[in-house]
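hey can u check if this looks right to u? its 85 residues, i copy pasted from the old doc so theres a chance i mangled smth
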Amino acid sequence: MTIEAVEGAETKAIQDAWIARDVPQCGFCQSGQVMSAVALLRAIPAPTDDDVDIAMSGNICRCATYNRIRAAIHDAAGVLGSGRS
């Protein structure tokens, strides 16, 4: 699957959280970050910080927005958990 094909509630929640948290800067890593975040939320709907760090460890962000990425994933999980997306 590629970033162009990923869809669903998790994708919408991640995209919205990414925008709200102003995650992307240069955009170099965003496809991989988004796809990994979506896969994480599909596997673990309410991830811990450790779950996020492990799931996202294969993606290197040149702009070092790791704290915003983690926060956005938690935001998306909260939205999905509350039944909104």
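The mean pLDDT is 94.
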